Amino acid sequence: MAEADPSIFASMRHIEEREVADAAALSALLDETHGPFVVRGLVREWPLVQAGEESPSAARQYLLERARPVPFTVSLGQPGRDGRLFYDNDFGMNFQTAKGKLADIFRGFDDNEGRSDAPAIYLTSVDMRGFFHDLADENLSPVLDRKPLERIWIGNATRVAAHNDVPRNLACCAVGRRRFTVFPPEQYKNLYLGPLENTPAGRTVSMVDFHSPDFDAYPRFAEALDHAQVTELEPGDAIYIPSMWWHHVEALDPFNILVNYWWRDTPAFLGHPQEALNHAILALRDLPDAEKAIWRDLFDHYVFDAGPEVTEHIPESARGILSRLTPETAGQIRAFLLRTLNR
């Protein structure tokens, strides 16, 4: 994979590094910290990390021995595309997906080892417990108390455009090196985001090529860079990315494995904010300006401010969904939305 212009990263502030003694200390740090941070060597003792230190083939063998006999989905890029998983010129994807046995997919890594024009090969967000036996228990989550989603990402030298995630994220570098470039949530205006519904991996992404940014086409990206932070992870290191922080991810070696943990601190019965945004585009965005202004005030009143004046004049027993939501009242909203959206 071609190297990025080093001047892009040279002036960036490095992501803060923190030390933790144990899982309890990490949990406390997560509760008190609002920005990203790096913990060096957090998962250095994982068997997967140790296998990768021996060799990439040893790491692959370690995974093969634990793989369940199910088809794996793999993304395959075109040779010579610099590992960037992105759009093609017609806003389709510049990669294809296929299914196959993990052993066959891993042979693709062997066959392309040492090729400067190797196609991107990437297994993304694989459920560790659903696709492997014993893997998650042998390489134990540092945030198991948060009941996270446990995912593994396996690939060669690839680049994933800047995007964000709603859950909080602890990403652990298991094999190979990874560079993370992160931006605060409010920098979305300077990252030149692409389509909402047509994306490489489910989240809208920055259109800027970080290896060769076009400041004529994307002049506000210079402002985003003023707020960027960067780190390079070695095997065993971990990075915490708060909810909604933008992150551009580069796998720097010919074979790389990342394990990440996603969790939210809100009850599982609450809806997904992205769905609300999509619904608002459907229902509100194209209204006349005067009507949108009225609805903006109502959203502030009922959603974003939601002060005591919303309900203090209503008997508590009659407040319904205006009270703090419960599984029952959340279910009522879902049922209402299903009825109205399907009519």
TrEMBL record:
The lineage of its organism: Bacteria, Pseudomonadati, Pseudomonadota, Alphaproteobacteria, Sphingomonadales. It comes from Erythrobacter mangrovi. SMART domains: JmjC (SM00558). Residues 115-278 form the JmjC domain. This is Cupin-like domain-containing protein. It comes from the Bacteria. It holds the Pfam family Cupin_8. Coiled coil: none annotated. InterPro entries: Cupin_8 (IPR041667), JmjC_dom (IPR003347), RmlC-like_jellyroll (IPR014710).
